[in-house]
Amino acid sequence: MDVLKHKCFLEELLFWTIKYEFPQKMVTFLLNMLPDQDYKVAFTKTFVQHYAFIMKTLKKSHESDTMSNRIVHISVQLFSNEELARQVTEECQLLDIMVTVLLYMMESCLIKSELQDEENSLHVVVNCGEALLKNNTYWPLVSDFINILSHQSVAKKFLEDHGLLVTWMNFVSFFQGMNLNKRELNEHVEFESQTYYAAFAAELEACAQPMWGLLSHCKVRETQEYTRNVVRYCLEALQDWFDAINFVDEPAPNQVTFHLPLHRYFAMFLSKAVKCQELDLDTILPDQEMLMKLMIHPLQIQASLSEIHSNMWVRNGLQIKGQAMTYVQSHFCNSMIDPDIYLLQVCASRLDPDYFISSVFERFKVVDLLTMASQHQNTVLDSEHERSMLEGALTFLVLLLSLRLHLGMTDDEILRAEMVAQLCMNDRTHSSLLDLIPENPNPKSGIIPGSLSFESVLSAVADFKAPVFEPGGSMQQGMYTPKAEVWDKEFDPVMVILRTVYRRDVQSAMDRYTAFLKQSGKFPGNPWPPYKKRTPLHPSYKGLVKLLHCKTLHIVLFTLLYKILMDHQNLSEHVLCMVLYLIELGLENSPERESDEEVESTGGPERCHDSWFPGSNLVSNMRHFINYVRVRVPETAPEVKKEPPASTSSDGLASSQSSRRKSLQRENSGTAQVFSLVAERRKKFQEIINRNTSEANQVVRPKASMKWSAPGATPQLTTAILEVKESMLSLLIKLHHKLSGKQNSYYPPWLDDVDVLIHPEIPRYSHGDGMTAVERILLKAAVQSRLNKRIIEEICRKVTPPVPPKKISSAEKKTLDKEERRQKARERQQKLLAEFASRQKSFMETAMDVESPDADIAMEIATSEQHVSEAIYDCVICGQSGPSTEERPTGLVVLLQASSVLGQCCNSTEPKKLPTTEEEQIYPWDTCAALHDVRLTTLQRYFKDSSCLQAVSIGWEGGVYVQTCGHTLHIDCHKSYMESLRNDQVLQGFSVDKGEFTCPLCRQFANSVLPCYPGNNVERSLWQSHSNKCMQDLVQEVEDLQEQLGTFPVSISSETNLSKEMESVMKDIKSTTQKKYTDYSKSPGSPDNDFLFMYSVARTNLELELVHRGGNLCSGGASTAGKRSCLNQLFHVLAMHMRLYSIDSAYNPWRKLTQTMQDKNSELISEELPEVPVLYRDVSSLLLIQILTMPQPLRKEHFTCIVKVLFTLLYTQALAALSVKCSAEDRMAWKQSGALKKNTCNGEKSWEVLLGHVVSELSMGKIYEEQETDELTVVNPDSVECYLQQFCLPFLRITSLLQHHLFGGDLPSCQEDEEFTVLASCLGLLPSFQSSDEFTSASCLDWPVPAFDMISQWCSELASFADRHPDQVKALLVQEPKWDLPRLLQLPENYNTIFQYYHRKTCTVCTKVPKDPAVCLVCGTFVCLKGLCCKQQSYCECVLHSQNCGAGTGIFLLINASVIIIIRGHRFCLWGSVYLDAHGEEDRDLRRGKPLYICKERYKVLEQQWVSHTFDHINKRWGPHYNGL
Fold first, then answer.
1. Residue 958 and residue 1069 in contact, taking contact as beta carbons nearer than 8 Å
2. What is the pTM of this model?
3. Do the beta carbons of residue 1451 and residue 1416 sit within 8 Å?
């Protein structure tokens, strides 16, 4: 780090640029001159010269992120050029400068390492809590370093320069052992440090990435020298490290570090040397002592992983689990766990196998468990952790012996295995697979995500499942799922275990495997993980197989098999599974040398446990019988009481223990010794140390390990001798019997079919449970040795006696009782749950049927009207059933929402397109809402206000839609429920203050309760009785009933609970929508307004139900919409309120419809505006006014009477509209032909006559004088008939629905062309159903007074209006355009079309380009999401638009994120995306930048939810938007 001396302006300039932390303008200025070659070289050299200064400035900077980006912005342009980088490396010592600068940078944050020997440690590590590491301040320098190492010429220089390698290893050793975790044994940590993020990031970026960079240049034989250099200096650094931390042979207990970059450098370069450079492994490996040291820390990590998963580190908080997960996570695993396991494999292949195996069990703290005795004392592990630690140790051994990632697999095989493992855990999307497959972090390694090999492997192992919809409405993405043959042949549980971040993924993979086997009929039960054949080992690692053929492992396997058979505690199926897996691995990889008849000599002087097994080959040891075992047991154990066996060799056994031991050793009577793993390991270690240290100074054993030296120190241990008389083979056969639950269940298959021995690979053994595994192993044992085959047959011949029932000690009895009690408790719980579920189910059924019209809730309807049974309701809160009474009313859970869906109907069948060019625009003039609006305004100009407000319906925009989930509750129960919600603070998603809640039973969103009108099902019963009264009488009755105002069954004067509730729900309904959608009167607050609003609510709900049924009633039946309908209750509430408004009898429209008036001229004299002529009135509105002002319950005959009268008016309107549409000649023709037939008997029921009459009546005024505009030449009678039917159909549909809700009875289904006739007869308009060929719509007419008088009277009103305003007459005639169903805008196929047009489009309000542009999918308006620029009175633009366009519901496509958000009132939710990429995935926020295409199914679902108003029920994640969207 020399002092900077500036010699030119460029240097001065760069100095100040750095000093001021790289101002953007300066950076741009300096970079703009780079095209000049001389400048480029000069600038690069200057940059390198200032490198240390850059580092110092960066460390001090407060804006290190910004500064880092700008540094890299410059350096990437300088160092990516190989020629330039090489030149600077040669001329300016670039590599030296970089490594030294990095070293200096890290030296500022070093602390003393506490690993191993806290007091005397000389090792220093980086402190992960420092800002330098926490904020990744080092990354620009590291990324430059990685960048220049990618150039072969530069990397070569680095690998040849010994001094540089030493410095670099020095740098790496700063990270060796950082972020040390110490296990908390007493208290939970107070503060969970999150430094581990920094530690993992530092190791990955500062150590692993440069390592991968260097490895990419060591691919061929010629580069052997480089590997030797790295390995040499790496080992030196490791030796220094071991010395610095004062390490002998025992790791300090209860501490672990996940960071061993030196070990990993060593491992990865070894792997490369063997795989690519054909180096002889033994020439670069250190001596045995070093290997013993090297294996300790990686092994410690594996044991700690198991401890962490066994919850032994729980007091260290969640962060320790986070570390365990990060260590195996896909971005880290190939720089962390994979090299660690590989290093352990290398050590295992070179060290003494007995030493290695006993080390493993000692590290996992399960040595004491490996005893034949039924009880033992574990000095280092609580018994609750024993089982999972034993599973951990065995699983680790299986991993160690099965994995071939660095031991012989090719890159393609690795990729395939990784992919299969990920797909087996879960179906994956394409992008998550790319993310989960550990790519070689160096992009030049060949496994680049997206490269051809990835796609080809993917198509080989997986099937694509197109994005579908789940029934619940959740969005599925396009997924890849494993092919059947992959499950069959390639599912590898070992790989899955290695790669799972969460343990539950292993279970998930097994569940999916089980499902596959069931489905394909390969295995019905619960399978065990399948055994998969491994890639052959690379010759350099053949030594690994020795682990499977060492006595220590065989003793452990034998002991565990015995313990499992005897049901000792703390063993599990998983333990057995792993034991069998290890035996099978041993049989698969047996050393070739054993020929059957060979005399089994014990090679060399075997030590200590030769009395267990004669040799070290598993194949022969399997058949070796072990008669007696001597065990150390607590004195309380049952074994102690046993007498010594009366065998020939135990004559002198009665003497003291010591003599007993001597005699045994003398005679060696087949009693195995006490087998101590620990003592074994000690002895081995000591031997190796002695061999290595030829000097006199023996290694002094540290005091710390005293506690191991005498495991028998606890006085209550005593020695007992167990009679075993088993071999592994006999144990396996007995286990088979135990697993099958049958005696003699195992029968050697080769006795029936000798071929089994020749072709042992039989598919029936490849999938199955424990029994299959045992069968497979026995078969393999028999195949490998004739002796084994004979012994298996012998064992099977002796009928195996049942396992003697063991004496149960009191402690075990307790645990058994506990288990039984648990089991019983579980059964009780199941029973209760089942009972509850069935109660709930039956309740759901009754609740759902309250509203369905065909269910006779009144069990049977009595014939006499007096006691009609009342409707019974269940309250979902208190669970009681009963009728709704005035004192204690019951209510339906309802959701009230304002809706403008109806207003969006257009009269074109083609949906509008979302504009994607300047030319395309959407004009909202032809929507249903706009046309109704214009009509009302025009009427109000020329006619009396109060009469206008009854001539139309409102609610096309901002109408109130009422829907229910069908559940009922007492209104007082509901109030207390709301109170409890109010006190409960943990509420998300809805606001209790606004009356919102979720249905207590089905959790559907709701915001009000609609009182159920008390009463009988009179309506249902009366509808059968057809009355014979004549039309005139009925008309009179209806009029009289309308006069009795106020005689409402619930007298208003007495305030009952019911009437209060009805009033409050009416308030709710009114407050649901905005004021502008309820106030249409010229005089604000007039009662006419309320009157109009109330019957319009009924209209809105009927029209919407019609839309949900597809716009017609052809399908008939009570559709799903009917199931959720609450129209009956709604009508009662509306009727009660409508009756409060008296209609002045003079203006009662009923009179005008049913009587001929005398005084025609009285109206003209009055000053004020005239009333709306009857022919201008909307018939459906009139129907609702009539029905709702009648006393409830209404009688069916009166209903039919009203419908008949209104149908005559509708028909006349149709004729008038038709007459305006024809040409003058046609009109003359109709007039004449009508006049001719006028006096025929059926004149009143012939459209020709009526049309003629209408034409002649209207001709009196100036109606036809206007110039003809849109001529519709209707000549032939068929088209006239068709026109009239189409004109009347909407009214018939609404009326039929109304009748269906008021009186029950199913809607008949029919073809589209006969809908008119079917509905007409259903409503009682058709006297008798004629054959359809001669049917005319006019035959439905039933005139209360002579038709011609009535028509003349109605037409005269128009004529008198025409005299004053001839231009408006035609416009106001009721035209029924054919409304199409409401649709969202049609979107383009490719998302890019939308993105390109909108993401730079300026907002019309603020004329800026919005930061978050959005577009409304209902009307195409372009808005600024969250934009403060367009905020009005604290409402942001999207919220405002949702109120104006959808009365509180908005559907917006966010242009920059491709997702759709829904605004519903004060809440919003992210709905998802309707644009998916080629793999069927969303690309939220366009992060991946893939081309996106419309998913029509999703868009259909979105539209469906909008039309059916079910956003609240289907989407679960709602949050408040506080008007900020």
1. no
2. 0.78
3. yes
**Ramachandran class of 1249: left when φ > 0, alpha when ψ lies in -120 to 50, beta otherwise:** alpha
Pairwise CA distance, residues 1201 & 1040, whole Å = 14
Residue 961: burial class (beta carbons within 10 Å; 0-12, 13-18, 19+)? buried
Edge-to-edge strand ranges of the sheet holding 1422-1424? 1422-1424, 1413-1416, 1449-1454, 1460-1464, 1467-1472, 1519-1520
Distance CA 101, CA 116 (A): 30
So what's the pLDDT on residue 1133? 87
**Cα Dmax for the chain:** 142
Do 1293 and 1096 contact (CB within 8 A), yes or no? no
- Both tokens assigned to 1409: 């380009």
Q: How far apart are CA 1331 and CA 598, in angstroms?
A: 103
Give dist(CA 1021, CA 860) in Å, integer.
10
DSSP summary character for residue 1456: T
Q: How far apart are CA 123 and CA 242, in angstroms?
A: 9
252, 131 contact by CB (below 8 A): no
Count of Cβ atoms closer than 10 Å to residue 29 Cβ: 12
Where do the H-state alpha helices sit in 1008-1086?
1018-1022, 1031-1043, 1057-1072
- The pLDDT tens digits for 378-408 are 888 888 899 999 999 999 999 999 999 999 8
Specify the residue for token string 């990590």: 301
Distance in angstroms (rounded) separating the CA atoms of residues 277 and 223: 7
Q: Which residues pair with 1520 in a beta bridge?
A: 1467
The residue among 1438, 1417, 1445, 1467 whose CA lies nearest residue 900 is 1445
Q: In this structure, what token pair is assigned to residue 1359?
A: 């004529």
Please tell me the distance from the alpha carbon of residue 1291 to that of residue 1297, in angstroms, as a whole number.
Answer: 10
Is the distance from CB of 609 to CB of 673 less than 8 angstroms?
yes
Q: Is 1273 helix (H, G, I), strand (E, B) or coil?
A: coil
d(CA 205, CA 1064): 66
The pLDDT score that the predictor gives to residue 849 is: 44
> Distances in Å between the alpha carbon of 1520 and those of 494, 991, 1465, 1466, 1472?
47, 9, 9, 6, 18
In this structure, the strands spanning 110-112 and 124-126 are: antiparallel
Q: What share of the chain is helix, strand, coil (3-state, %, to 5)?
A: 55, 10, 40
Return the amino acid letter for 208.
A
pLDDT of residue 1017: 47
Cβ(1042)–Cβ(1190) below 8 Å: yes
What residue ranges in 1266-1342 does DSSP mark as E strands? none
In angstroms, the first-to-last Cα distance of the chain is: 55
DSSP state of 673: P
**Ordered alpha helix ranges (H), 403-492:** 411-425, 430-436, 452-461, 484-485
Write the single-letter amino acid at 1089.
Answer: N
Tokens encoding 1284: 């009239």
Q: What per-residue confidence (pLDDT) applies to 1339? A: 78
- The H or E element containing residue 1134 is helix 1127-1138
- Provide the pLDDT confidence category of residue 668 given band limits of 50, 70 and 90: very low
Sign of the dihedral defined by the CA atoms of residues 874, 880, 882, 883, in that order: negative
From CA 1351, how far away is CA 74, in angstroms rounded? 90
State phi, psi for 526 to the nearest 5 degrees: -95, 105
Is the separation of the CB atoms in 1134 and 1065 below 8 Å? no
